[in-house]
Structure formats: C-alpha cells, structure tokens
Amino acid sequence: MSATTTYPNYSPGLEGVIGGITNISEIVSETSTLIYRGYDVHELASKGSFEETAYLLLYGALPNRAQLDEFVTTLKNEREVPTEVYTALKQLPKDCHPMDIAKVGFAVYAPFDPDYAAPATDQDANRRKAVRILAKASTIVGNGHRIRNGHEPLKPKAEHTIAQNFLYLMSGNEPDAKTAHVLDSSLTLYAEHGYNASTFACRVTVATLSDIYSGIVTGIGTLKGPLHGGANEEAMKMIQEIGSVDRAEAWIRDALATKKKIMGFGHREYKKRDPRAIYLTKVAKELCVEKGQTQWSEIADILENVMETEKGIYPNVDFPAAYAYYVLGIPIDLYTPIFVIARVSGWSAHVLEQLANNRLIRPACIYEGPKSATWVPVDER
Predict the structure, then answer these.
(1) Which of 105, 174, 176, 233 could form a disulfide linkage to 140, CB 3.0–4.6 angstroms apart?
(2) What Rg do the C-alpha atoms of the chain give, in angstroms?
(3) Is the pLDDT of residue 151 over 80?
(4) What DSSP element (H or E) covers 312?
C-alpha cells in the first residue's frame, strides 16, 4: 500500500502542499508563465538588466533612473570583500567544490558586515545586508575560482556590472558586449522561482530568527544538490558526450529507447515550456553564431526537435544555459555557482518577506517506528 493511500494528508516531497503566501513571483504552469512582482520574466530579461531585476525583487518595484543609478553605485562600492575572506579561501583544498567555496566565502564575510550585530527582525539592516550579499556574490565566486587555480584575486572594476564583474574576475579578460548580455540575461532568468528547495530552506532558516547570512549559506548548500542545482552542468556534459551534429539524432533516440536520463528537459512546475528557456535559447543560439561554435546549437536543435516530437517535452532553462555558458568559456563546475550569483537576489527577497510576517516553520511528520520497545540493560543486550 502506498504512503499516500495509508496517509491521505501526506504528500511526499511536499508536492502540492501550500507552504506560504508570497508577493515575489508566480509560476503559472498551464500557460508556462513566470512573473516577478507582476512582470513577465521574458520582458525583464530582454529589455532590462539584472540590476533592475534585483532591485525589483528587493524593493518591490522597478527603479526609476535616479534609483537605479544610486543602487548601481552602492553595488559597485560594496563589491570588494575583506582580505580575511580570501585568506580563508586559500586554506581550502584546490579540488574544493566551487559551491563550498561560495558557502565558506559568505560564512566568513558575515561577521564583517557592518550590520552584523543588528537583530534578525531589523528589516532596514536586512535590506542593507541583502544589497551587500548581491554585490559580493560575483566577487566571491569569480575570485574563488581564481584562488582554487593558484591565482591571486583581482580587484573588481567600478565600471562593471555584476555580469561583467564575474566574467572579468573569472578570466582576467574584459568581456565583450554580447558575452556580458548573455550572462546578464541568464542571471535575470535564474534570479527567482517561487518556493523551490533552496528558497524554502532559506526561509526555514531565517524563520528561526537566524540571520540572513545563515539563510544564504543554507540556500547555497541546498542548491549544491544535483536534484536542484547542477542540471545545467549535466546538460553540457551530455552535449559534450554527443560531440557532433551527425551523432545527435541517433544518440537521443537511443537514450529514449533505453530510458536514459536526458538532462535539461522538462520541469516539475511547467506542463509545457519553461518560459525562462525561450529567451535564453534565442540569445544562446545567437551567441553560437557570433562565436563560430554553431555545432552546440545545432546539436541542441536536434535534441529539442526529437524530444518535442516523440515525448512532447521541452527544454528547461538549464539546457540553453549549458551551451551558452560553455561558449562563453565558463568552466562547467562554475555553472551552479553562477546560479548562486543570480539567486541571492531571490533568496534575499524571500528572507525579507518571511521576516515581515514571521512564523516558525515546523511541519508535522508521521511516525512509523516501534511503539513499545522494552528497555534492556546494556550488559544484557
């Protein structure tokens, strides 16, 4: 007998269970729509910047020119991290997972935050912390990558956007406009996605009145798991395994016949298309043409066509992100940390929302263990 038959009020994985009320984003599965505070994510990615989207998530409305300029200036002034953070990162093993580097970076920085001693309920301090977290994420990930490869961290440049800052620190080279736009768009598309596992974990943490940095570290730790983050990494490994356009159709048909896991397709929240994938697919394919690496987008086209025709399944945002990031020259194990750079904006928005009307999150559970065990002295067991 299944658990749902035995316990009609139990939903494995909390699927379908309402965990709270939010004003931050809405997923409409039937129409494949995702909105951030009323704005279609496709419009935000194609017409705006990640900084504008982050402001929208943190402050509840899109900024006007003066507000955006002030916000961008604050981000640039907060982008650097203390040398103590880099000292800590240099102590980590060189084969340390980049997600663990991000966790350590934020955990070490937390006590250096000027608002460190503020109560968890101080929403003004929380918002200032959130802006610092957003500003420093690309620096921690970018310079963390440099450190693990034996290089000294670089100083962020004031003129860079968040996307440009990461690309510059990661590679040591100035990114061109197309490269920066593709990454910037992906950050907007990855910024927020309702009560996903990492966001919910973050809310659970701060609901205890722990601090926002503890929530962010919780979010990173949750996102590290391959059932949540990492799908874009696995999707690129799959595309690399296929290797060439002439192998793509046979590979995907064999994978379907043998029920092999096909990464980057389908999503639990969408019945049809992932709206985030629509714009990112467009810019990813344009990027492949511009960079002269169309084999990746051509392989992607074949996989998409077969999956749609044979299974009625469409790519999710991780599929175009995979080959877009690869063409940008980003190491595959940095794909999920890029997710962190984006998602700290959504996590922080949820922290602020949770603490504005807080209640400790403490679900019930069903006990199936022994009911009447008899104590036996240790020497008689």
Answers:
(1) 105
(2) 22
(3) yes
(4) none
Do residues 226 and 198 make contact, with C-beta atoms less than 8 angstroms apart? no
Give pLDDT, residue 1: 40
pTM beyond 0.85: the answer is yes
Catalytic annotation present for 40:
no
The set of residues, in sequence order, having a beta carbon less than 8 Å from that of 269 and lying 6+ positions away, is 27, 29, 193, 194
Q: What is the DSSP letter of 195?
A: S
Sign of CA dihedral 113, 119, 125, 126: positive
Q: What are phi and psi of 267, to 5 degrees?
A: -155, 135
38 touches 274 (CB < 8 A) = no
What confidence score (pLDDT) does residue 5 get? 56
Question: Domains of the chain: which residue ranges?
Answer: 25-225+352-356, 231-327
Which of 6-15, 49-58, 91-100, 348-357 is the least confident region? Answer: 6-15
- What token pair was written down for 34? 């995702």
What is the assigned CATH class of domain 231-327? mainly alpha
Q: Which of 160, 211, 318, 350 is catalytic?
A: 318
* Cβ pair 131, 59 in contact under 8 A: no
Total number of residues shown for the chain: 381
Lowest mean pLDDT among 93-107, 144-158, 185-199, 229-243: 229-243
* Listed residue (34, 26, 24) closest to 61, CA to CA: 24
Give catalytic status of residue 318 as yes or no: yes
Instruction: Identify the CATH number of the domain defined by range 25-225+352-356.
Output: 1.10.580.10
- Closest among 235, 192, 212, 226 to 343, alpha carbons compared: 192
Indicate the DSSP class of residue 194.
S
Residue-level pLDDT at 227: 82
Q: How far apart are the C-alpha atoms of 215 and 222, rounded to whole Å?
A: 10
**Does residue 199 have a pLDDT over 90?**
yes
Task: Choose the catalytic residue: 211, 267, 274, 350.
Answer: 267
- Of 32 and 319, the structure prediction assigns the larger pLDDT to 319
Phi/psi at 157 (nearest 5 deg)? -100, 135
Q: How far is residue 168's CA from residue 284's CA, in Å, rounded to a whole number?
A: 20
